[in-house]
Q: What sequence folds into this?
């Protein structure tokens, strides 16, 4: 088969295997290490998405059996090995995981190689072509949609005097602005602004407005908007990965829990916070119009999970346990990012 087609097929097919494997590994390690911090959990869970890009770098073309015109299926039994390794000896001295196939002569191959050897190359070609045709269609749709939505992004300054001193300091430090708009259905953040919908703001009292701001500035400070955008774009490009939407849901939940918890640091009473979540989810007339922004709540959202995540979270008692967990989790994440999961 044509080398370019073989590379494209490898990239598409292996991305699916890699993504699912990375998600399972992260889930296992979050459980083993008992990571409770929502921000850390969020960072760990976005890794499979960024690895999709990073894998371009991880492919070892010089050791690829196919390029060396070796058919792994012709190798005798015992000379092909399945490697499941967690090691520390690559040229960058970074930890890495290696799940894949290797021949006695050190050449590597992938599941995609095995499939393409046993399936007619026309089928492989049709598969790759359909992936790209659908992708172009999705890109076209997205461009039209975002263009249309962006023209609706109009807001005015919201002159609100914040009483909470901690919150006020944060807002000054990060130069955050308050805005108001009648095009929005839920409060949200956009670039460096917290935006309130006109339909909601009059029903909120002073403490509730500050509760909303405390959540939204967390998204701005941690640049969640940018990460969200990158993930949406990657999710569109890799539309064919099964289960990725479920994973995005998990990521979004963790991100929202993290920002809900941030309100505690801003001295917001958790009871007031839960009440305002509930209130806005009821006040909302419909779900957010801007799918590229992260709404404060969804219409008629079940607040129970968010409330219990906020009220039941207990930070670790000792700073050193937090530190050790963070180091171990970083070790796992680096191993996955630099690792080879089912690629040649
Ligand atoms: Zn949020």
A:
């Amino acid at each position: 088969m044509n080398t370019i087609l073989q590379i494209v097929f490898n990239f598409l097919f292996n991305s699916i295997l890699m993504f699912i494997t990375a998600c399972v590994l992260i889930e296992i390690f979050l459980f083993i290490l008992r990571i409770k911090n929502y921000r850390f959990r969020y960072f760990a869970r976005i890794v499979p998405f960024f690895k999709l890009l990073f894998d371009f770098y991880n492919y070892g073309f010089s050791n690829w059996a196919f390029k060396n015109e070796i058919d792994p299926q012709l190798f005798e039994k015992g000379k092909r090995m399945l490697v499941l390794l967690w090691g520390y000896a690559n040229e960058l001295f970074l930890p890495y995981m290696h799940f894949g196939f290797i021949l006695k002569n050190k050449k590597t191959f992938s599941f995609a190689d095995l499939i393409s050897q046993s399936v007619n190359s026309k089928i492989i070609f049709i598969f790759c072509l359909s992936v790209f045709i659908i992708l172009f269609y999705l890109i076209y749709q997205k461009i039209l949609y975002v263009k249309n939505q962006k023209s609706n992004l109009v807001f005015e300054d919201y002159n609100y005097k914040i009483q909470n001193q901690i919150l006020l300091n944060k807002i000054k430090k990060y130069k955050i602005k308050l805005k108001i708009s009648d095009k929005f259905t839920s409060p949200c953040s956009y670039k460096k602004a917290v935006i309130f919908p006109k339909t909601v703001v009059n029903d909120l009292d002073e403490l509730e407005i500050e509760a909303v701001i405390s959540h939204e500035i967390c998204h701005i400070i941690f640049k969640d908007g940018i990460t969200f955008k990158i993930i949406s774009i990657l999710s569109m490009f890799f539309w064919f990965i099964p289960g990725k939407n479920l994973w995005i849901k998990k990521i979004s939940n963790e991100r929202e829990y993290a920002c809900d918890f941030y309100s505690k640091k801003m001295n917001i009473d958790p009871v007031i916070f839960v009440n305002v979540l509930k209130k806005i989810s009821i006040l909302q007339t419909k779900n957010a119009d801007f799918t590229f922004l992260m709404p404060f709540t969804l219409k008629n959202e079940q607040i129970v999970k968010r409330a219990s995540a906020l009220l039941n979270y207990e930070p670790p008692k000792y700073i050193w346990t937090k530190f050790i967990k963070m180091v171990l989790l970083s070790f796992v994440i680096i191993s996955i990012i630099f690792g080879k999961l089912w690629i040649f």
